[in-house]
Amino acid sequence: MMISCKDVAHLVSASQDEDLSVTNKLQIRLHLLICRGCRRFDRQMHTLRLAMRQLGREPGRNSTAELPDEVRERIRQHLRAARRSSNK
Amino acid sequence: MTLTPESWLDEHGTYLYRYALTLTRDESMAEDAIQECLLAALEHQASYQGKAAERTWLTGILRHKLLDAIRREHREIPVETLNLPDGLPDDASLFDHTEHWIDQPRRWGKPEAMLESTLFWQALHYCLEHMPKRLARLFLLREMEEMDTQQICQELQISPTNVWTQLYRSRMGLRQCLDRKLGGP
Fold first, then answer.
1. Helix (H, G, I), strand (E, B), or coil: what is residue B95?
2. Which residues of A touch B116 (CB under 8 A)?
3. Distance CA B183, CA B185 (A)
4. Which member of A16, A45, A76 has the closest CB to residue B6?
5. Quick check: B94 and A56 CB within 8 A?
6. Is any Cβ of chain B less than 8 angstroms from the Cβ of A34?
7. What is the DSSP letter of B4?
């Protein structure tokens, strides 16, 4: 019945992609009761999930990347060319 | 309404670029997708009803273009053939022979507090930067775009087992990187 830290790591990751069986959920909970490392791991994975979801909602968060001027110019020219050919 | 495609670039270019760069981790892939997105927007502007905000409409088109690019890449070089080692930890380096942690996970702050912390976000971006790019893209489709594993299997033509394995490796790698950057004792 008792599962290892490695098993917990695999199951906690799997739980972020699919529903686990009742047995698996119970195994994780029992293990977390007695294992501080895995309790921290579980919380870290939860934090990571929340952060990634937030990044999905605000993808530019903390990004200072700028579209380089020459790329902007290249795209601008493509747009102009496309408009001209569609107006013909 | 007068539609001016060039103003899309001025008003939304930076936003679109940051989105594309976050998802692809690759500058030229992001730049190409933005160009394709704006050309497609120009072509289909008649079908834009103005119901959604302009930015939302453009982001939707960009997302399609990015998925096309990622899909193409995976068709050409399946993720199965990626060579190990790729810098991500495997179970043998994380767990000892009794399957206990070799390095105990460290204590982070409360999740809500972490999400408010500039240090945390800097560390997260750093760690995402240092992941193998193709694995990062697969992981970001799952986590940022919230695609389910079945959709990812279909989009990228890879098996469910492989998706789970790659997601597990991505999470363990990111977690370890973040733990080193952020963890207390």
1. strand
2. none
3. 7
4. A76
5. no
6. no
7. -
**A13: closest CA among B99, B182, B175?**
B175
Q: What is the residue whose two structure tokens read 């997601």?
A: B167
- The rounded distance, in Å, linking the Cα atoms of B17 and A15 is 32
pTM of the model: 0.87
| Contact call for A55 and B22, based on CB within 8 A | yes
Q: Report residue B104 as tokens.
A: 């105990």
| Chain B residues near residue A47 by CB distance under 8 angstroms | 108, 111, 114-115
Q: Mark out the alpha helices in B25-85 (DSSP H runs).
A: 27-43, 54-76
Cβ atoms of B73 and B33 closer than 8 Å: no
The rounded distance, in Å, linking the Cα atoms of A78 and A10 is 48
Two structure tokens written together for B78? 């399946």
Task: Indicate whether this complex's ipTM tops 0.90.
Answer: no
Give the residue from chain B lying closest to A54, CA to CA.
Answer: B144
Q: Does A25 touch chain B (CB under 8 A)?
A: no
Question: Do B99 and A5 lie within an 8 Å CB cutoff?
Answer: yes
Residues from chain A that touch B39, judged by Cβ atoms under 8 A, are 78-79, 82
**Residue B101, SS3 per DSSP:** strand
> Which amino acid, one-letter code, is at A25?
K
Q: Would you give per-residue pLDDT tens digits along chain B (185 residues)?
A: 455 777 889 899 999 999 999 899 899 999 999 999 999 998 887 777 776 788 889 999 999 999 999 988 877 776 655 555 567 888 999 999 999 999 999 999 999 999 999 999 999 999 998 998 888 999 999 999 999 999 999 888 888 998 999 999 999 999 999 999 987 65
Q: With an 8 Å Cβ cutoff, are A53 and B118 in contact?
A: no
